[in-house]
């Protein structure tokens, strides 16, 4: 079992500064010689990439809706191994959850027995932060708000007024971050590029790290961290797709959950990676091919011209390898992809379906999935759906029957043809 301690960064609502604080603290603590293991609450793929860049250590997802408490505890302990601290960024507001009321940042903090550092946006308020903080602190027994960080503080006078108000709550004020235009996170371009390739990100990280060191009591923050609850469980919850899994990985296929990859490695599977955008084919001796989610719609011409990639997928199908695609990966397995301009781009053609970017609003939410397919996973799965595209009905059997978080039946998802299959669902864990 790891001996690391940790805490959770949360807020009353989205937009309060959780990500700013998380990235700044990861960078500041790293520069101070601390080894900090980062994690993100929920199914987000993008923030963990930035967490890992700031920490110099890969981040993981901890999803209290999709994962069982034992799996969350095991992943948290494994992530914290060799680290001084486990720092977890929350999602939305502290008590915000899925439609069924489960899966909040508070649920995660309680499961792991970790204290919460609450980031409060102080813009356009002063003494009113006190009842807000007190309400959040008293709302749920078992969730301990151990410290407060105030964000977007306008002046020294504003800070004094806020500090006096916070003192009445009995909760430690760890620091007040001033309102500054250079503390705005640069546009993250939907995660299509690594942070090091983004103009301005390194400069932002330098400023954020120095700001945290200047305005937050890092020693007091460290003292609030508590040991992780729960025990380590080493078994893989979702078995490997095969003994040798070839995995697409590049800017078009970037949505990979690290806990799945590590679980597959731990179960003895060999993982190899290839880039469809570089026209690379999956390994010829792989018995499974995984095309994860991403943004193939932004790379239609390159994928349409990737002949070796396409031929490699057909060869994998012909040797009876299992071929599985999620969201963007599912789109790449289909006949064609129609982008936002109406241009059609030929895809792999393994599933007789056309996908198109035509939805004015995104499809977003947790899904309970049931399948009867060659996937070597339990019949019941938990996953997430997030896309702007739609798929034409193919006439093939769907891969998944689906319910949303409230148990409301959704349209059947995806398509299944022999050992080739895919859908818009991102599978997270066994149900």
UniProtKB/TrEMBL annotation:
EC number: 6.3.5.9
Marked site positions, Increases nucleophilicity of active site Cys: 426
Catalytic activity: hydrogenobyrinate + 2 L-glutamine + 2 ATP + 2 H2O = hydrogenobyrinate a,c-diamide + 2 L-glutamate + 2 ADP + 2 phosphate + 2 H(+)
Pathway assigned to this chain's UniProt record: Cofactor biosynthesis; adenosylcobalamin biosynthesis; cob(II)yrinate a,c-diamide from precorrin-2 (aerobic route): step 9/10
Domain commentary: Comprises of two domains. The C-terminal domain contains the binding site for glutamine and catalyzes the hydrolysis of this substrate to glutamate and ammonia. The N-terminal domain is anticipated to bind ATP and hydrogenobyrinate and catalyzes the ultimate synthesis of the diamide product. The ammonia produced via the glutaminase domain is probably translocated to the adjacent domain via a molecular tunnel, where it reacts with an activated intermediate.
Family: Belongs to the CobB/CobQ family. CobQ subfamily. Belongs to the CobB/CbiA family.
Protein name (database record): Hydrogenobyrinate a,c-diamide synthase
Organism lineage string: Bacteria, Pseudomonadati, Pseudomonadota, Alphaproteobacteria, Hyphomicrobiales
Name of the gene: cobB
């Amino acid at each position: 079992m790891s001996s690391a301690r940790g805490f959770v960064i949360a807020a009353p609502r989205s937009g309060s500064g959780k990500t700013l604080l998380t990235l700044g603290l990861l960078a500041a603590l790293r520069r101070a010689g601390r080894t900090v293991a980062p994690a993100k609450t929920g199914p987000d793929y993008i923030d963990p990439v930035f967490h890992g860049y700031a920490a110099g250590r890969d981040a993981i997802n901890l999803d209290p809706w999709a994962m069982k408490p034992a799996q969350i505890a095991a992943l948290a302990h494994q992530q914290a191994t060799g680290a001084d601290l486990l720092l977890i960024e929350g999602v939305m507001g502290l008590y915000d959850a899925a439609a069924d009321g489960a899966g909040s940042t508070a649920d995660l903090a309680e499961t792991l027995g970790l204290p919460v550092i609450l980031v409060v946006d102080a813009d356009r308020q002063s003494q009113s932060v006190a009842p807000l903080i007190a309400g959040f602190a008293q709302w749920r027994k078992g969730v301990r708000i151990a410290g407060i960080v105030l964000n977007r503080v306008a002046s020294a006078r504003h800070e004094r007024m806020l500090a006096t108000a916070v003192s009445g709550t009995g909760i430690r004020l760890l620091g007040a971050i001033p309102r500054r235009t250079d503390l705005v996170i640069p546009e993250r371009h939907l995660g299509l590029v690594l942070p090091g390739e983004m103009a301005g990100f390194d400069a932002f990280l330098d400023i954020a790290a120095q700001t945290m060191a200047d305005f937050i009591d890092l020693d007091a923050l460290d003292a609030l961290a508590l040991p992780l609850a729960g025990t380590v469980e080493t078994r893989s919850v979702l078995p490997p797709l095969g003994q040798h899994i070839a995995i697409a990985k590049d800017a078009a296929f970037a949505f990979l959950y690290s806990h799945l990859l590590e679980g597959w490695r731990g179960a003895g599977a060999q993982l190899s990676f290839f880039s469809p955008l570089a026209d690379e084919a999956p390994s010829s001796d792989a018995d499974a091919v995984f095309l994860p989610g991403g943004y193939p719609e932004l790379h239609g011409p390159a994928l349409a011209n990737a002949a070796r990639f396409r031929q490699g997928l057909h060869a994998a199908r012909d040797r009876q390898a299992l071929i599985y695609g999620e969201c963007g990966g599912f789109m790449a397995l289909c006949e064609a992809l129609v982008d936002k301009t109406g241009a059609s781009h030929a895809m792999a053609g393994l599933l007789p379906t056309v996908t198109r970017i035509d939805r004015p609003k995104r499809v977003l939410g947790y899904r309970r999935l049931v399948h009867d397919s060659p996937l070597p996973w339990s019949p019941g799965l938990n996953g997430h759906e997030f896309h702007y595209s739609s798929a034409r009905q193919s006439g093939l059997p769907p891969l998944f029957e689906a319910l949303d978080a409230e148990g409301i039946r959704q349209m059947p998802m995806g398509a299944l043809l022999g050992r080739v299959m895919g859908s818009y669902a991102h599978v997270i864990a066994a149900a």
